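A sample copied in:

***
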Amino acid sequence: IYVKNGYYHIYNRGVEKRTIFEDENDYKVFLKYLKDGLSTPPDPTKLKTIFTLQGASFKGVPRLPKNYYNQAELLAYCLMPNHFHLLIKQASEKIIESFMRSLATRYSMYFNKKYQRVGKLFQGHYKAVLITNDNYLLHLSRYIHLNPLEYTKKLTNAYSSYANYLHLRTTDWVRPEFVLNFFNKSTLAEIKKINSYQNFVERYKGESEEVLGNIILES
């Protein structure tokens, strides 16, 4: 269900649960593709370069990847060896569809070329779950940030947006304020009992998936 100004949990994994991030550079390339799609688009006049074709030289702008600045906003993410989770707000009804197609195509082409493989990299179409209330949004952000516990004890070292939420890192294409504003306003009963987002996340280690499941059932 795609709606204007909707919040979505987007996730996908490798075909046959295969690894989609084999080394550190693979993670960095995927993050670069997110940055390309979500950051302020560059000024085309500053990108002009000299091309040579059949002996003739001319100035032109190289082909740029599709850009979704202010159309899709990334609130949270985590990348795992064989899958990923994204929390995205879209401005219009079909932006997520276009954004995810562009992201998956670019990364699949990169991965297949690097590892000399052919065929689909991801297990079918990505999943997009509409977030129906604020409580669901908060618990989903926590679930995403706790996902890497399977691989690391220090969550701020994971390939995720958790460090952005703790103000340890600033990334202009990640928008933690959508979630952190709840902690400034303290409008939800549960938030009033908690001093910080870090406490909200880390006190639920080991329970996040069960709590999220209950929230989804209640939505």
About this structure: The first strand starts at residue 7 and ends at 13. The chain has a mean pLDDT of 87. DSSP finds eight helices and six strands in the chain. The helical segments are 24-38, 95-114, 134-146, 162-165, 177-185, 189-192, 197-202, 208-218.
